[in-house]
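Whiteboard transcription, Tuesday session. T.W. wrote the structure tokens on the left side:
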């Protein structure tokens, strides 16, 4: 008798046989039930129906029930933004498509079809991949809860197209810096500081003057600001600004300041350590989307196109590589968990640098 997953077997007489837990005796031993069909698909459908209808099912609830339990566990071991991301994916994508199914009904064929439909909706491959990663984590959780009684499934992730990341050229960078230095205020200072340190937009918004040490010539990143969607908003206010811990343990870091950055900090410093660097006040902050809007105005005035706040971070990393920055140090300054992230996502060698490296080969006769 050959097996084809989900406790479905091909019998010697040509029929297919499916087995499920019908009940448990007083000693805890499982008592099996059986269904039969002429084809694998027919048997599988009969098996689903038997498992769903029978009180002796070994799994506790449908996929939606397990989503609730998994989210409740994640609430206390991930950050606010990550939890909001998980709950949004479950609410918008996983529950509508899979919520009423029982976990044992979810197989590789179903997941492949689900993945295809995500892309057909027009979602980006990266978004579809994020959804499937949450689904995979959920299936792993269910498998542990059921002591591995679920058949193994394969999650096939869509292939992401590598997009060219916008990086400011040295001439564009000089143009932006000149504009920011002209009639500099706290917001322009924050934008320029981000360009000189590679900080993320939420980190700049959350940075207070107490995190900058002029004596040691460094700043400390320990918090981030973000506007989060409230998971269960009952009223009209569905989002709120949250200042929380940095993105990850690697994101909590100390960044040495260049002479240029240090001089700017001395020029703009405020005595109150609780004051935000973007406002100079402790009772007023500038949230990320407002800072992004300000930057949009700045780059328009400079005649630059396609520049977002993350462009500053990519530009910083690229300039570091161009001057021969050691990658491990750069990775820690950017707050990455590994140098692979730095190399894959943030290092963009210019054509001039590529030519310079090729000239090194010429010097040895190649």
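and on the right, the sequence the group agreed on:
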């Amino acid at each position: 008798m050959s097996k084809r997953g989900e406790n479905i077997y091909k019998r010697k007489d040509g029929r297919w046989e499916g087995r499920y837990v019908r009940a448990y005796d007083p000693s805890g031993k499982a008592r099996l039930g059986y269904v039969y069909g002429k084809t694998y698909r027919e048997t599988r459908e009969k098996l689903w129906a038997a498992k769903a209808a029978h009180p002796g099912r070994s799994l506790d609830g449908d996929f939606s029930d397990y989503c609730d339990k998994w989210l409740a566990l994640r609430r206390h071991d991930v950050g606010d933004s990550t939890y909001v991301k998980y709950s949004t994916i479950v609410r918008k994508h996983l529950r509508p498509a899979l919520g009423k199914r029982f976990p044992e009904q979810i197989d590789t064929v179903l997941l492949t079809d689900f993945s295809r439909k995500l892309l057909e909706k027009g979602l980006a491959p990266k978004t579809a991949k994020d959804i499937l990663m949450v689904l995979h984590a959920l299936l792993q959780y269910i498998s542990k809860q059921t002591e591995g009684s679920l058949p193994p499934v394969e999650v096939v992730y869509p292939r992401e197209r590598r997009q060219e990341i916008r990086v400011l050229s040295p001439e564009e960078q000089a143009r932006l810096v000149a504009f920011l230095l002209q009639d500099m205020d706290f917001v322009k200072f924050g934008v320029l500081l981000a360009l000189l340190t590679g900080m993320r937009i939420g980190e700049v918004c959350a940075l207070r003057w107490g995190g900058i040490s002029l004596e040691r010539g460094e700043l400390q990143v320990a918090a981030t600001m973000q506007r989060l969607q409230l998971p269960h908003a009952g009223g009209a206010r569905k989002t709120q600004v949250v200042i929380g811990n940095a993105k990850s343990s690697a994101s909590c870091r100390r960044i040495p300041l260049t002479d240029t950055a240090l001089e700017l900090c001395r020029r703009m410093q405020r005595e109150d350590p609780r004051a935000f660097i973007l406002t100079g006040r402790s009772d007023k902050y500038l949230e990320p989307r407002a800072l992004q809007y300000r930057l949009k105005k700045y780059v328009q005035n400079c005649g630059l196109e396609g520049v977002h706040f993350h462009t500053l971070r990519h530009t910083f990393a690229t300039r570091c590589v161009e001057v021969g920055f050691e990658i491990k140090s750069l990775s820690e300054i950017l707050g990455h968990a590994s140098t692979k992230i730095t190399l894959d996502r943030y290092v963009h060698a210019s054509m001039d640098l590529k030519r310079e490296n090729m000239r090194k080969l010429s010097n040895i006769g190649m």
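Someone added at the bottom: Residues 100 and 191 are 48 Å apart (CA to CA).
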